[in-house]
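Action item from last week, closing it out:
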Amino acid sequence: MLKRDNNQSDGSLDDLISFTSSINNDLKPPTKHKHQKKLKIPISILILTFLFCLGAIFFINHTQTVNATKASFIVKRDFNPKTTDLTKHASIKDMDKLKEYAENLSDSDKRAYYLKLAEAGRQAVQDQQRYNYLIDANGKYSTRLTEKRLTRDMDILDGEKKMNDRLPKYSYRSYWRYMDLIGSTQVVNYLHQHTNELFTKKGKVKKNVSFQQVDQLLYYHSKYKKKFQQSADDYNRLTLARKVLVKRQKKQEKKRRKEEAKKRKEESIKESLKRAQESSKAVQDSIKNAQNKQTANTRTSSATSISSSNDSSPSSNTDNNDNDDNDNDDAQSAEESSDDESSSSSYDSASMSKDISSILHSSRNNQSSEQ
């Protein structure tokens, strides 16, 4: 019994010792290991801050590189190698993107260069769009094209000094493009006015129009019909007008032939009447001659003289009738010739050619002086 109790007392003592040691451990001051843990927090913050700064620097440098690369790509695609002219790929959207990329660049020189190029390029694209608007869906210059409108566009072009300085090649090309277009437009409008003079208000071809007028206008319009819708329309009108003239000519020819046939018929009737009169006269003369043979020689001679005088009088009347017919024919031909002259007197072929040459010559002189 005593032995068991001793064992129990030893176990309780061990438990007490372990409990006491655990309390002592809790009451001990912090060790060096916990102090190190507290130092790790600010060090981690510093490391994270450093890594964040490195990431920010890397991101900024990467953004700068991306913006510079994108800006350079737009410039190479939308401008010629010397950046003095646009290419067919240029658009307003591209110029706005170029401006956006340039504003985010830290390099002041590149930033200024790309910003100026974007502004000048935007102005040039707007000018190109304004010029393209002059062309209709058929690929020809619109009928709304006028010299006044082109001059107004030229004034806008001259006012864009930044485009002239930054894109000189495009500015020069656009300037002369407008100037050449102004001269051609003047000629087209001049031809259009003369074309309208050949037609009535209802669109019918006037009676005094000649083939020469139509053919000359067709010749000049053929030079501009591929580029100008107005000339193409006038060319079609003149083509139809020429067909009308051909029909008129055939109708007049048919009428002339009909009149000639009628005239020949009348002449044949006159000839037949004349032959009938002559035959009747011959019969009468033979009867008179038979009767006169029975009379005296003196009366025979007088009767012969009378019959000869009678023979001469109808022939003179016939001659007079022929002369009257010839006079009427001459009068009719004179009237026809006067009508032809009146139909062409209001038209001067040489004058039209001279006017067109003068328009083109003055346009070129204005271009040289303005340049």
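Closing note: Residues 229-292 form the longest helix (64 residues).
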